[in-house]
Amino acid sequence: MNLPPFKLERYFAKYEFNTEFLLCSSDCEAMSIADLLAIEEDASEKFQQVWLGYTESQGSPSLRVEISKLYETITPEDILVHTGAEEAIYLFMFAAFKRGDHVIVHSPGYQSLADVARATGCDVSPWRAREENQWALNLDELRHLMRTNTKGLVINTPHNPTGYLMSRADYKTIHTFAQENKLLLFSDEVYRESEYDPNDRLPAACDLGEDAISLGVTSKTYGLAGLRIGWIATKNKKIYERMASLKDYTTICNSAPSEFLAEVAMRNRQKLAQRNIDIIKNNLVVIDELFARRANLFSWVRPNAGSMGFPRLLKGDIENFCDDLVRKAGVLLLPGSMYDDSRNHFRLGLGRKSLPLAVERLEKYLNSY
Ligand SMILES: Cc1ncc(COP(=O)(O)O)c(C=O)c1O
Predict the structure, then answer these.
(1) What percentage of the chain has pLDDT greater than the value 90?
(2) What pTM value is reported for the model?
(3) Which of 2, 98, 153, 240 has the fewest CB atoms found within 10 Å of its own CB?
(4) CB 102 within 8 A of CB 207
């Protein structure tokens, strides 16, 4: 197996825990265990009683009940809980693909969605979203990327890093296309429920067909990355069983305290999501004003969901800019090169309460740029 370094994670390993302002995080503002438990009257007491033995490999039944409420047609038996979304991506790729297969992957994107597929030995074609199309995907290009051995299609919406939320019409066309061509559709929905207008929310892929797999996690919209609880939801029993059996070689089962806390979180997920959407919306006001003042320096496609955007620096080199900014001002941005983007984009995180202060610091730096 040949897995290259995960560029974004290596970058974060260097800066995440020693930089004052993280202005490029993909997750929303977290909270303490005490604050989470305070959401439910008897949760704190029950948490003390959590049994620290092995847990059920597919995830605790009561957690799967709560997760299944995210979907229209999914039962708890269709949910397989993992240690983060990352484990689920890893196991899905090995369960679904093999050497000689071809997979089409939404790009730019979260690196493991393409590179774990490659590590299984299959060929990966990036399906590129472009800034000039407001980060929408071109459906004609998908048809051109198809080969006789294409087995899978990987999409991510709301999208990391652009915050792009696909239109309902495009989403429907993609599903029909996947069904007609017998493709497994892996739909990374870890930013779902963070749409700025809830009317824009797309149906979950797993509700639209047997060969679709939806990916979810507590980390992003709900702001609980430290729980490391992710899941897949699918009616495809073959993929489910293969992933369940591969999981015996990675984590076997999930952390019992995390499963309890994730259950509390998912039961109250609307409250958690709203808290974070409010933070994002307040931050967007600050960011819109910044980019209006600095229109000569940045181009900006405003996201319509999620906790990220992917602006472009119009002057200078983005890697040097980010490097100098973090060293001189203690503000971390993520250069687009971490996504193999060569057009001077950078990832901007919108989900942290510290954003207004981080932007103040950034502007001070820009005054001498
Ligand atoms: C699109 C996407 N999928 C999956 C993941 C993995 O989520 P987690 O780190 O919670 O496992 C991330 C994390 O950044 C992501 O952005």
Answers:
(1) 98
(2) 0.98
(3) 2
(4) no
